[in-house]
C-alpha cells in the first residue's frame, strides 16, 4: 500500500500546498518536518493524514514521544494509513511477537516493513504456514523485517516452492527424518528462496546433474550455498565453470572437485571471479596456489589486500606459503593472525642458559 500511495501522488507536487493540519500535528509531536520534506515531501501534500491517530496507536504499544517522532521521520507515509489498517497490521505481527514491547522495538528498527500493509490476507496465511512448517517465531519476525516480500506471495506459491525443495531433497537421497531440519535451516539462512519459481529450482538442479555431480554432491552444494544456487541460472553457472576450467587448466573431473571445495566458483559471475583473480595475481600469488586453495576467491580484493598487508607486517611471506592463512571469516582470520603473531613473539628457549630464581 505504501507504494500505491506514493505512485498516486508523486506528480504535480509543486502546484499543491502542504497540509497545515498535518504540519501542526507533526510539530506537536516534535517531528523534524525538514527531514520529511527532504525524504518524502509528497506525504505533506495529502488532503487526509492520520498523524494523531497513528501516534496514539504507537504510544498505546509503548513508544515514547522520541520513538514516535523517529518512526514518523524514517517512514513518513505511516501517517497516511488508516488506524484500522495499522491495527490489523499490529494484530498480524502480534502472532509472532512475544509482547508489545518486542513489537514496538521492531517497528522502531524497521518502520517501513511494518507500515507496508499490502496483502494482509497473504501475510497472515504465510505467517500461519511458516508456523505450521515449524519455523520459530523469532525467525518469522526476522523474515518480516528483512524479507517482507516473501509474505506478499500467495501462500500457495510458497507452499509450492517448499514442496519442490522437499521432493528434490528426497529424490537426491536425503532422508525423510532429516528433511524438516534441512528445509528449516535452508529457509532460515536464505528466505529469498521463496521468491524463485519451482521451475527455476528444478532447472538449476538438473543443470548440476547434467554436469555429472552425483546426488550426494548436489545436496552438499545446496547446503554449502545456502540455497543461493536457486537465484542463479544455468547460463551464468555454465560461464563461470568454463572460466574456471580455462584459468586452472583442469579436466571436467578436477573442475568438479574444485567447485565442491569452493562453491563460489559456481556462484560468482565471470566478471567478479576475474576481478578477484587479478587482485590475487597482482599480489604475487600464483595460479597454482589459488588452485590449491580456491576458497580465497570468496574474499573481495580489498579484504585480501588488507589481510596480506597485516601478515606481511609480521614477516609472513604469502607468495611462498599456502593461502590457508588468508581464508575464512573475519573471526577465522583474527585467530590465524593471532597464532602467527604469538609464534613470532615467543622467545626461543635456551636449555643451557642459567635460570634466574630469586631466593
From TrEMBL:
Zinc in keyword set: no
Entry's localization field: Mitochondrion
GO molecular function: nucleic acid binding
A cellular-component GO term for this protein: mitochondrial matrix
Major localization class: mitochondrion
Keyword entries, A-Z: Mitochondrion, Transcription, Transcription regulation, Transit peptide
PANTHER family in the cross-refs: TRANSCRIPTION TERMINATION FACTOR 2, MITOCHONDRIAL, TRANSCRIPTION TERMINATION FACTOR, MITOCHONDRIAL
Subunit structure: Monomer.
Family according to the record: Belongs to the mTERF family.
Protein name as catalogued: MTEF2 factor
Protein's organism: Corvus brachyrhynchos
Lineage of producing organism: Eukaryota, Metazoa, Chordata, Craniata, Vertebrata
Amino acid at each position: 500500500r505504501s507504494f500505491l500511495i506514493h505512485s498516486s501522488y508523486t506528480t504535480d507536487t509543486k502546484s499543491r500546498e502542504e497540509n497545515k493540519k498535518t504540519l501542526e500535528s507533526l510539530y506537536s509531536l516534535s517531528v523534524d518536518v525538514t527531514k520529511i520534506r527532504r525524504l518524502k515531501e509528497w506525504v505533506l501534500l495529502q488532503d487526509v493524514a492520520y498523524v494523531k491517530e497513528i501516534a496514539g496507536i504507537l504510544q498505546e504499544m509503548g513508544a515514547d514521544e522520541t520513538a514516535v517522532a523517529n518512526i514518523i521521520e524514517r517512514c513518513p507515509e505511516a501517517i497516511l494509513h488508516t488506524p484500522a489498517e495499522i491495527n490489523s497490521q499490529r494484530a498480524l505481527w502480534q502472532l509472532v511477537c512475544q509482547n508489545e514491547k518486542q513489537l514496538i522495538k521492531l517497528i522502531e528498527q524497521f518502520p517501513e516493513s511494518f507500515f507496508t500493509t499490502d496483502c494482509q490476507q497473504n501475510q497472515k496465511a504465510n505467517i500461519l504456514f511458516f508456523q505450521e512448517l515449524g519455523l520459530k517465531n523469532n525467525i518469522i519476525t526476522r523474515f518480516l523485517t528483512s524479507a517482507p516480500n516473501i509474505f506478499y506471495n500467495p501462500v500457495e506459491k510458497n507452499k509450492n516452492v517448499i514442496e519442490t525443495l522437499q521432493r528434490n531433497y528426497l529424490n537426491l537421497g536425503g532422508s525423510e527424518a532429516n528433511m524438516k531440519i534441512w528445509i528449516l535451516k535452508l529457509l532460515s539462512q536464505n528466505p529469498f528462496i521463496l521468491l524463485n519459481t519451482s521451475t527455476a529450482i528444478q532447472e538449476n538442479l538438473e543443470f548440476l546433474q547434467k554436469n555429472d555431480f552425483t546426488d550426494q554432491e548436489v545436496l552438499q552444494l545446496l547446503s554449502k550455498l545456502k540455497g543461493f544456487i536457486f537465484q542463479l541460472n544455468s547460463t551464468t553457472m555454465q560461464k563461470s565453470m568454463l572460466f574456471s576450467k580455462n584459468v586452472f587448466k583442469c579436466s571436467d573431473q578436477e573442475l568438479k572437485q574444485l567447485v565442491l571445495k569452493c562453491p563460489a566458483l559456481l556462484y560468482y559471475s565471470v566478471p567478479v571471479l576475474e576481478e578477484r583473480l587479478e587482485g590475487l595475481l597482482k599480489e604475487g600469488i600464483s595460479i597454482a596456489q589459488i588452485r590449491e586453495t580456491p576458497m580465497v576467491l570468496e574474499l573481495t580484493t580489498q579484504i585480501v589486500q588488507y589481510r596480506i598487508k597485516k601478515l606481511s607486517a609480521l614477516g609472513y611471506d604469502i607468495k611462498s606459503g599456502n593461502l590457508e592463512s588468508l581464508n575464512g571469516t573475519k573471526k577465522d582470520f583474527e585467530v590465524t593472525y593471532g597464532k602467527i603473531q604469538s609464534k613470532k613473539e615467543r622467545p626461543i628457549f635456551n636449555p643451557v642458559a642459567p635460570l634466574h630464581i630469586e631466593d
